[in-house]
Every structure is written in C-alpha cells, then in structure tokens.
Amino acid sequence: MQTRNRMIGSEMFTLVAGEGRDSRSYLVHKSLLCYHSPYFASALKGYFKEADDDATTLKTVSTKVVDVFAAWLYTQQLPESDVEDGIVLLLYIFADRYNVPKLRKQTMDGLFSEYGPDTDELPGFWSITKAFDHLPHTSPVCRFLVDVYARKWDGLWSEDDDASGELPREFLVEFIAVTGEVNGFEKRVGLPLKMPERCEYHEHEIDETNCCRAEWKARDAIAKATKEAEEAVYR
Length: 235
Prior knowledge:
By secondary structure, this protein is mostly helical. The chain has a domain of 77 residues: Potassium Channel Kv1.1, Chain A (2-Layer Sandwich), CATH 3.30.710. The protein has a three-stranded mixed beta sheet with strand order 2-1-3. Helix 2 crosses helix 3, helix 4 packs across helix 5 and helix 8 crosses helix 9. The mean pLDDT is 83.
C-alpha cells in the first residue's frame, strides 16, 4: 500500500461538476488524472489556467457522470449494477471530450454488450440524439448506433420515442446508407450481414487488433460456458 501511495503521490486536484446549488466537488489525485487523460495532463502541467489552480469546473457535466469517473480513476472498473440508464453513453461522451482513452474503450465495450448482436435490445432515440449532438458522426459510438439500427430496427416507433424527423440528419443519412448495404448483401448472398466485431469499434494501433480480438473471443467463450453452467443447475 505504501508503495502504491508513493507512486500516486500526494498532490490533489478538485473536479467541480454542475453549477450553483447542484454542484459537487471531487478530490482526486492529480497524478492519476494526468496519467489517464492527456487532456488534463496538458491542462495541469502546461500553460492552461488550470495549471496554476487546484480545481476546475466541469459545468456541463452531470454529477452522476463524475461520480463514476472519480471512482473509476482508482479502480479502472465500471460498476456492474446500480448505474442509471444512459450513464454509460454519457461517460463515453465525457471520455471523448476530456480524452480518457481507457474509459472510452470500456464504455464502448459496455454499449456493445448491451446492444450488440447477442441481444435484442435497441438504444432509444435519446441515445442517438445525444451521441450525434456531442460526438463526431465518425466516432465509434455513432458508427455503432447506425450499425445496430440498420440491422435490428423493425421500422416501428416505440411509445417512448418521437418521430424520425427529430433524429439528427447525420444519423439518418448514415442509417439509410448502411441499411442499403445490409439489404443488398442479404439479397445477393441470402444471409444477413453480420455486425462488425466489437474490436472494430476500438481505437487500436494496427498491431493491437489481433490481440484484442483474441482477448474478447476468450471472454465471450468464458461467459457462454458460465451461462450454460448456470442454466444447467436450474434444469
């Protein structure tokens, strides 16, 4: 424990989320913040105003997001339960804005597990609007949302969703293009066009791709075996 504390250091930094009476302060180790975020490393060690301060205010970031992020800095793990619906997407947007690569990858994995090819779930229109309003339309999450809807949406609106006219134009353009590719493939080959692998939504260096694929194949195999074992117990 003492060795870990020496590595982290004692210098602290305060993140303030929200505004006014709804604001909340989070005291975190500056070294961890800079290690995981090149954005904060530049801001706190360079010529930005924050470099001379002991705090910064994240006015547009929800306290619910920073609650999770402040804990994640010390564990690099996302909570498995008791997380409000939509918080994983908001964490990805936060990680994109403040350049936290590992958190981006983990939240992308969380979205893939929730809405990928092994589930029947679809993200709501709120998720599409939020993602396309705050991320480049070429970002992994935006591409993922288009891919999911192009393959899984049945063309019906749910009671909780508004009409398509309120969806971002960039999403609709990409959705129409990818849907055309999916339908064209099925007509030519007679089989549905599979979703890209999870790894395709990661920001890899070229030599990392195969390792990532092997890792997730092993994880998926373990998860499948565990599920089958649990089902066997209750038969």
